[in-house]
Design goal:
Distance between the termini: 123 Å
Order of helices and strands: HHHHHHHHHHHHHEEEHEHHEEHH
Helix content: 55-70%
Largest sheet: 6 strands, antiparallel
Structural class: alpha+beta
Number of helices: 18
Oligomer: single chain
Strand content: 5-15%
Number of strands: 6
Length: 533
């Protein structure tokens, strides 16, 4: 019942706008679109109702997504009618404004993953939502005045209305772009947040450039194209900020950026060619279709270099994760460290596997030989790494908080001395086992969530490998102890045999001495017979 009450307002609004569009000559399509929009809002209501207990998506995220869905549906429904109708223009402005405000709310409600970093106050600021609401209030006031006031009361130039709507669309795109840039600048070290910020940034930038290009080329009207681009950007921003998996955002961002880099010039070229040579439109469409198919084939290859640090870290970590699956511990560790060495761009900067017991650091040289060296691990490294997201401690995070938390300075100095960029805790059921240190090696960008998760997966596999190595070491130690005990018992047996032999020789000598006396003093016949017997 409560869900039906929440759908009462969208149903009434959609029905009113559909009736206005139908009355303006749009036919029965607005009614069908209103029914589809109401069904979509209902589905969105059901989906977001499950976010109440989620750690990353709460009720505020649900309200923001529902606002974007309602506003976007209202805008699209209003645009089904003919241009110039004040009722539809006011409804379209209201829908775009609600969608833009919802996207700004979603931007302001992105939560971090904990650890040493704390989100700044600007992360929850609603100034962007206020700017978007003001822009669309001004744009919607002009058609609303024509709609609500009696005819002849106020004279509003239709071109002024179109200009206000176009300006509001541009303002929304620019505000979303600025909000994404601010999030990226202020929260660049938070795992997952920077992926969301990059997604919103690429979505807003792509929409702004595409809408501006379409307007300049005469493909669409400015008062229709730019607001539609703003609504699409709001929907994309809401998805980027509320999806449960930030790594999906990173992959989608790379794919969208690759398509924008190679697809947008193709589309613009095709549009200009069709306008210049309308008689050759079929051939141009055919060539454009073939180009689109080729773009789809090469999009993944183009998107790969756009990954974090050229995806070099991800490829190296994945190769190391496969290498540690070897059955023999020492060759597996050697192969894993050699695979991780591919992530480095600086010669001599090598990853290290720090073992806590015994305290030693394992690394491989250029030839692939395993080396060990003693190391002193700061006690704070284990506790701080356990509290960080994905159990990965980053030197850049320690550098960012060293002013407020001076206790991390010795640990930061230890990491910088070893040239480490990250330290991932290797943990098992019995407690911490060691640390996996990845070198900075000329890296300039921040660690991505994909890389942190890959490092944790590698650390878990190394933990199992070290557990096997420890079990084999304990078995070897038991074998050595047993061999030593056997050698000790054999030595004791030999000494005891020597003592027994010495005692036997001494007793035999005494008996022989006594027997010699008997032999030399026996002269009778009976004595001789007894001795012979």
């Amino acid at each position: 019942m409560s869900r039906l009450r929440s759908l009462a307002l969208p149903g009434v609004v959609f029905a009113y706008v559909a009736a206005a569009a139908h009355g303006a000559g749009a036919g029965w399509l607005p009614w069908l679109a209103a029914a589809v929009a109401l069904a979509g809002v209902l589905a969105l209501e059901r989906r977001t109702a499950q976010w109440a207990g989620s750690p990353e998506r709460d009720a505020a995220h649900g309200r923001a997504v529902r606002a974007v869905g309602f506003g976007g549906a209202l805008h699209l429904l209003a645009r089904l009618g003919p241009p110039g109708d004040p009722t539809l223009d006011a409804a379209a402005c209201a829908g775009a404004g609600v969608a833009g405000v919802g996207a700004c709310l979603a931007l302001a409600r992105v939560s971090g993953r904990g650890g040493l970093l704390q989100s700044p106050r600007t992360a929850t600021s609603l100034d962007a939502a206020g700017l978007v609401a003001f822009a669309w209030s001004v744009a919607g006031a002009l058609p609303a005045a024509r709609w609500l006031l009696p005819a002849g009361t106020v004279a509003v130039d239709p071109q002024a209305t179109d200009l206000a709507i176009t300006s509001a669309g541009v303002a929304t795109l620019l505000v979303l772009l600025a909000a994404a840039l601010r999030m990226r600048a202020t929260r660049r070290l938070e795992l997952g947040v920077v992926d969301r910020a990059n997604g919103a940034l690429v979505a807003a930038g792509t929409a702004l450039l595409s809408a501006a290009s379409a307007t300049l080329l005469g493909v669409g009207l400015a008062d229709r194209t730019l607001p539609a681009a703003a609504v699409a950007t709001a929907a994309a921003t809401a998805w980027v900020m509320t999806t449960a998996e930030p790594t999906r955002v990173a992959r989608a961002t790379r794919a969208l950026l690759a398509l924008a880099l190679i697809g947008a010039p193709t589309a613009i070229t095709a549009t200009v060619a069709v306008q210049a040579y309308p008689d050759r439109a079929p051939a141009i469409v055919l060539l454009t279709t073939a180009a689109a198919a080729a773009i789809g084939l090469v999009a993944r290859a183009v998107a790969r270099p756009l990954g974090p640090d050229g995806s070099r870290w991800l490829e190296a970590i994945d190769a190391a994760s496969q290498a540690v699956l070897q059955p023999e511990p020492e060759p597996a560790l050697r192969a894993a460290l050699a695979a991780l060495d591919r992530a480095s761009r600086v010669p001599g900067a090598r990853p290290e596997l720090v073992h806590l017991s015994p305290a030693q650091a394992l690394s491989v040289d250029v030839a692939g030989y395993l080396h060990t060296a003693p190391v002193d691990v700061p006690p704070a490294a284990i506790e701080l790494a356990r509290g960080e997201p994905e159990r990965t401690l980053r030197a850049e995070v320690l550098r960012a908080v060293e002013v407020r938390q001076p206790a991390v300075r010795p640990l930061l100095a230890w990491l910088e001395t070893r040239g480490a960029f990250t330290a991932t805790l290797i943990d098992d059921d019995d407690g911490p086992v060691g640390l996996l240190l990845m070198p900075r090696a000329g890296r300039s960008d921040t660690l991505a969530l994909e890389e942190a998760r890959a490092l944790r997966l590698l650390a878990d596999r190394v933990s199992a490998l070290l557990a096997v190595a420890a079990a084999l070491a304990r078995a070897r130690a038991r074998q050595l102890d047993t061999d030593a005990a056997v050698r000790r018992l054999e030595s004791e047996g030999a000494a005891l045999s020597a003592r027994l032999a010495s005692a036997h020789a001494r007793l035999a000598a005494d008996a022989d001495t006594l027997a010699r006396r008997v032999r030399t003093s026996a002269f009778g016949g009976a004595s001789r017979v007894a001795l012979d017997t």
